[in-house]
Design a protein that fits this description.
This protein is mainly beta. The chain has one domain: Porin (Beta Barrel). 13% of the residues lie in helices and 53% in strands. It has an eight-stranded antiparallel β-barrel with strand order 1-2-3-4-5-6-8-9. A hairpin with a 7-residue loop joins strand 1 and strand 2.
């Protein structure tokens, strides 16, 4: 339990560091364009876990993101925040009988990365963007509402890759920000009894996202 507490504390400290890095020490020219954009995202997510022997699981769940973005140059931005990923696992090795609660993957990560959008479309009512970043956190399988650490041990910490495409729709302080997201993440987790899932276990998650963004400061 002490190890688990230390890990959670480390993730919280890292999240604070990421958000501080995104929000500070940016060029003065960028501040005249946009101070800060805060996004609250929710998406329907499906994916697969490498140990389930299923190519793709059509068992969607909701995922949530809280992101902070800042413009650093015309056409380029930096972002960071927290990602909460979830999707179901119901096929092949995930099958545990009709009466067993369904398995699901749950991931919690911090992320930091960069964004590109066409500078020539800065004043357009709908502006496309592409994002890519590095994730750090954990992702593991759990069943139903059972969070007992004895039966569902805490997954190992690891890195992942976050990629997304989307649109900023609207002008002014509030934006509508739909998008498509892919998350590739480490998903190694001890089994009940102490046996480990393969060290190279991974999970992939794909989301259709909807978001509301609020821009603090400048920007059109």
């Amino acid at each position: 339990m002490m190890v688990h507490s230390i890990r959670r504390g480390s993730v919280g400290a890292a999240l604070i560091a990421v958000l501080g890095a995104v929000a500070a020490h940016l060029p003065a020219a960028a501040q005249s364009q946009e101070t800060l954009q805060v996004e609250v995202r929710a998406g329907v997510t499906a994916g697969n876990h490498s140990t389930s022997a299923a190519a793709f699981e059509m068992a969607p769940r909701l995922s949530f993101d809280l992101l902070f973005r800042r413009q650093v140059a015309p056409g380029f931005g930096a972002y960071g925040g927290f990602l909460r990923t979830s999707f179901g696992c119901e096929e092949y090795l995930c099958l545990q009988g009709e009466e067993a609660p369904p398995l699901r993957l749950v991931g919690n990560h911090i992320v930091v990365g960069g964004e590109w959008s066409p500078a020539s479309m800065a004043d357009a009512p709908a502006r496309p963007w592409v994002r890519a970043g590095v994730m750090y956190g954990s992702a593991g399988m759990t069943r139903g509402a059972d969070n007992d650490p004895e039966t569902h041990p805490e997954p190992e910490m690891g890195i992942g890759i976050h990629t997304a495409v989307g649109l900023n729709v609207g002008k002014g302080s509030f934006l509508f920000v739909p998008g498509l997201t892919r998350r590739q993440m480490s998903a190694s987790q001890p089994r009940e009894g102490g046996d480990n899932v393969a060290d190279d276990a991974t999970a992939s998650a794909y989301s259709i996202d909807l978001a509301i963004a609020y821009r603090i400061g400048g920007g059109s």
